[in-house]
Every structure is written in structure tokens, then in C-alpha cells.
Write a structure and sequence with these properties.
single chain, 206 residues, alpha+beta, Immunoglobulin-like, 7-stranded mixed β-sheet, 3 helices, 11 strands, rod-shaped, HAVR2 protein, glycoprotein, disulfide bond
């Protein structure tokens, strides 16, 4: 090293080694600077529908409650909410992506504050066609879908009979019970009627 230094004045003996060290340092820096791949944070969302059963009369307004709760995410504004109904005809979608999708229908819409977890459904001027089980479904940012247990809605028909509004099933039950009572009364009174008739015949004969 001393000889090379004397033959080539101004030459830095450590330049070659220093350059190698700088390249190694750069390589190390490049490796550690790579971005880390982060997996999406998992959600733990609870969808609660209350009550399990709901009744209403024709023409009334019904509120089907649905509340969301996520301890990790107090703000829920980025969630997509869907409501659908199941009945004998199958499944009917009522609301998707927080918006009513029924054509020419302004009776059904979502109420409440989504950021506070209130995604309840309102149905105005209900009719017997609104019978069914209603489900609240939420799609999370990670694609996971969470659905409530459902609320069974039953609408009582307004018959206007003596000012009493009852469902068809209730009216049929009352009529059947009345007929059954009359039949029992006839069976019980028949022996007594026979005795009375015999007594009347005897008295008339005397």
C-alpha cells in the first residue's frame, strides 16, 4: 500500500474499500425501505333487529328497528346497507346501498343516522301485501356480509265490522267458537227440552 501511494500521489488507498462499503450500505438501505404489506383490519360487527315480531293495522306507519355495533369502528359511515323481505312469493329486495330500489315507491326508506349505527326501515301506509319477514343486511369494507335475525311483520286487515278491526284469522276463530258453543248448548239442553215436552203432553192429557 505504501508503494502504491508513492507511485500515485493523491491516491486514496481506502477509496476502493470505501466505495464497496457505500454500495453495501445503499443495498441495505434499499431492502429496509421496502413498504410492508398490511392486511385489512378485520371487522367485528353486530347487527341487531328488534323486535322479532311486529304487528300493525292497515294504513299505519311501521318502523323496523336495526342497529349496528362495532367496538373497533365507532364511525360506520362507509358501510353498505341492504333490506329485503321474504314471503311465500320468495325474496324481494327493498333497499340496496342505503337507497330504496323499488320503482315508483316512496313508502319504504331507511331512517336514522348510519354513522351512529341506526339503519332502521320505515314503511308508510302499510297494506296486507307487506306481510313477510324483513332482514337487515350489511356489507363491510372487507367484503364480509352480516345479516340480522329478521323481523316478522303481520298486518291486520281493517274490516270495519261494528267498529272492530281484526285480522281474518281472528274473525274466523271467533265465528268457529260461536258455532261450537251453540252446538254444545243444543246438546246439553236437548234432554231438558224432551222432559218439558213430555210434561206438557201429560198435563194436556189430564
Amino acid at each position: 500500500s505504501a508503494v502504491l501511494f508513492s507511485l500515485f500521489p493523491g491516491t486514496d488507498v481506502g477509496a476502493i474499500g470505501g466505495g464497496a462499503n457505500r454500495e453495501n450500505a445503499a443495498a441495505v438501505t434499499h431492502v429496509t425501505a421496502q413498504p410492508l404489506l398490511l392486511t385489512p383490519e378485520s371487522w367485528n360487527l353486530l347487527v341487531t333487529q328488534t323486535p322479532a315480531k311486529e304487528k300493525a293495522k292497515e294504513g299505519e306507519t311501521v318502523v323496523l328497528n336495526c342497529h349496528l355495533n362495532s367496538p373497533q369502528h365507532p364511525s360506520l359511515t362507509n358501510l353498505m346497507v341492504k333490506w329485503y323481505k321474504e314471503d311465500k312469493k320468495g325474496q324481494m329486495n327493498l333497499l340496496q346501498k342505503n337507497v330504496t330500489i323499488l320503482p315508483n315507491n316512496s313508502r319504504v326508506f331507511m331512517s336514522g343516522d348510519l354513522s351512529q349505527g341506526d339503519v332502521s326501515l320505515i314503511i308508510l301506509n302499510v297494506t296486507t301485501s307487506d306481510h313477510g319477514i324483513y332482514f337487515c343486511e350489511v356489507t363491510l369494507p372487507d367484503g364480509k356480509v352480516v345479516t340480522g335475525d329478521g323481523t316478522k311483520l303481520r298486518i291486520r286487515r281493517a274490516l270495519g265490522l261494528f267498529g272492530i278491526e281484526e285480522s281474518i284469522g281472528t274473525i274466523i276463530g271467533v265465528v268457529a267458537a260461536g258455532i261450537g258453543g251453540i252446538v254444545v248448548l243444543v246438546i246439553v239442553l236437548t234432554p231438558q227440552l224432551r222432559k218439558c215436552i213430555l210434561c206438557m203432553r201429560q198435563e194436556s192429557c189430564q
